[in-house]
Structure formats: structure tokens, C-alpha cells
Amino acid sequence: MPAVDALVCFALYAANRTTTQAYRALLEPWNLTYPQYIALVTLWNDGDQTVGSLGEALQLDSGTLSPMLARLQAAGYVTRTRDGRDERVVTVSLTPRGHELRTELAHVPRCIAQGSGLPDADSARDLIDALHQLTAAMRELRDHPDDAVAAERATRAAS
Asked: Where does the chain cross the membrane (predicted)?
């Protein structure tokens, strides 16, 4: 067994990469990427969004989000409108064609769920909860690496 197979980080990386590839295969007929798809999902479920709130929801910076939204707009799926009172605020809205995609892509979540090998919705929810906890913990580590290093050293010194 390769050494990387024993690393949590590699297992997450491999699962993420393969899941993204599965989405790519499912979304290819619509010429959509996974980030474009999750932007559409957010708009379908939560309605119009400012670029800022959409970026926050998708955890994407404006340098990544703006070109992606430009491509979705060029494809006719969304519009971007500047606020008349504050030109810095841009609202992203679905076009009628963008709304139609929801029906056309309704099979995607079911295909991913089936392909995941999870036996039921409760198992999926447990995995999602565990991944959210992991994300929060890694965000804490990212934001306070010195605390983690100090705690690890203290644990090592105590043993």
C-alpha cells in the first residue's frame, strides 16, 4: 500500500478529485463546470444573490467568481445587474433558461448520491456533518497554526 493511502489528507484529496470528475462527466453535455453548477444550485435554492454573498456561499474569491459568472452570463443562464444606488453591488439572477436548467439537471444529485455508495439519506447527512466539522477544524488550524504547533509540542513533551 502506498504511504499516501494512510493519510487523511490524501483520502480527502482523492475523493474530492474523483467526485469532481464524476460531476464533470454528468455536466459535460451542458458545458458546465462543477463551480458553475454549484452557483446555479445556490441561485435555484436561495434566489438572487449579490456577487459578494454568492462568493461567500461558494467559498470563492472574486478573482475566480467574476470570470465564472461572465461565462454563465454569456451562456444565457444568469444576468448581472449593478445596483442603482451603489454601483459596487452587483446582483446575480437566473434567466428563464437558467431556471429551465434546474429540471434538466435534476438527475445530477441522484446520480452522485447513487454513485457515492452511501446506503441512505441518513448516511449522507452523517457524512456531510462530519465534513462540515472537518472544514471548521481545518479553518481553525489555517487561521491559528501556531496554536496547533504549540499544542502538539506540549502533547509530545508530556509523553
From this structure: none
